[in-house]
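Reopening: structure tokens for the adenosine-5'-diphosphate complex, inputs below.
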Amino acid sequence: MDTGGLPTLTQDDLVVRTLGERSFPSPLDGGLLERGESLHYVTEDDRVLVDSSLSRAVRRGVPVEQLPSFEPGGPRRTLFFDPARTRVGIVTCGGLCPGLNNVIRGLVVELYEHYGVRYVLGFRNGYHGLTADGEEPEVLTPTSVQWINSQGGTVLGTSRGSQDPAVMVETLRLRRIDVLFVIGGDGSLRGAQAIADEAEARGLPLAVVGVPKTIDNDIPWIDRSFGFQTAFGRAAESIRSAHTEARSTRNGVGLIKLMGRHSGFIACYATLASDDADLVLIPEVAMPLEGERGVLAHIERVLDTQGHAVVVVAEGAGQDLFAASTAADASGNAKLHDIGALLRDRVTAHLAASGREFSLRYVDPGYAIRSVPANAHDSVYCTRLAQAAVHAAMAGRTSIVAGRWHGRFVHLPIPLVTASRNQVDSKGDLWLSVLEATGQPVFV
Ligand SMILES: Nc1ncnc2c1ncn2[C@@H]1O[C@H](COP(=O)(O)OP(=O)(O)O)[C@@H](O)[C@H]1O
Ligand SMILES: O=P(O)(O)OC[C@H]1O[C@](O)(COP(=O)(O)O)[C@@H](O)[C@@H]1O
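Re-run output (same inputs, fresh job):
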């Protein structure tokens, strides 16, 4: 994964908050292993280096504590929470992403089957479900979540909008919730941090553990977000169909708009997976339309040489081509201008003015893509993320997300993953691969 441009970390950025020192024996040995094998409980020695190239330094004898490293995910020998008494809440917030139901199912199954927790509530429609006006939460059991992984979306519902952390913590207190799992993106995780801070200020031993969700793959310090592989796989199918249409007509142009508010990962990966696109436009790279070195002239040249052209555009690309606006959605995220429609109109006008016969087909499969069930790879990943999140919470970790870094499950402080954004590095390997695969020029 291209994670170029991330800031340098110190160990202080990676310190994980824990609730304290209570010490219940983990039920995992008894629950999981019947024939005397012993489970590998995580210890401090398992720390995961932020920069794996530093493993050479460790081999040379530099103590791992002196190098920035993440706390490892996984089961602990002793727990903060007594599973038999622990009450758990789960909430999903923000936009849909393939795999949400897999994560919900994974949390419930791990809590019930491996830890013996017997009380799990699903809060409805995002953080709205934690307010006084929220719908009644749903009791979740392994039976009630048994088949949900075959469906896209989230069985709990989701929402955007702004909710008061004090009100949400009061709801959690009244329902005597000990652990809250938040499956959500950067906004939801900022909310999770606010809930954890409010609980701490009130002296409530509440564990708040996130599972990072972003179809755009824009959360930093994780190898890849769940659902992303499913999403770019589906997006590649859309590009392939648009390509088939385009090459079936004279001067056919296929224009596909994909999701990617600030980060063009879906567009880049789908392009590489289909290998059918001639031009990819992403938020991270400027795209002048006019002039010899602009997008319109390039499309014309592709039509001249090849007789058809396929253009992929991420929804956040080219926002500078519009008048500035302060419009925002209910969560405060900037509302994007419709770059797909602008390109459709400008390319149509440009080709019409050139006097050539052409046919442009515009497709916007974004919502259709993000609502599909997770593929096999993402399903595995969701289950394992959920297991890591449960291990972390039962051991009393709070204000963290469970993520995977260089193939290992780790605990990442929420402030770390909300402080920056993962974006395609315009000087990095991924973008270079896209330029090579499409043959598109560097526009500026
Ligand atoms: N800056 C913030 N501080 C606290 N809570 C936030 C913040 N931004 C968003 N939230 C909460 O998180 C929820 C989801 O945020 P949103 O940005 O819509 O999606 P995502 O979590 O996918 O980024 C919102 O309903 C809101 O309650
Ligand atoms: O669901 P909405 O409000 O139409 O928002 C669409 C946005 O949701 C996303 O799919 C995911 O965004 P979030 O991670 O903020 O939830 C973006 O790619 C897209 O810009």
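DSSP finds 13 helices and 17 strands in the chain. The mean pLDDT is 94. Marking as resolved unless the reporter disagrees.
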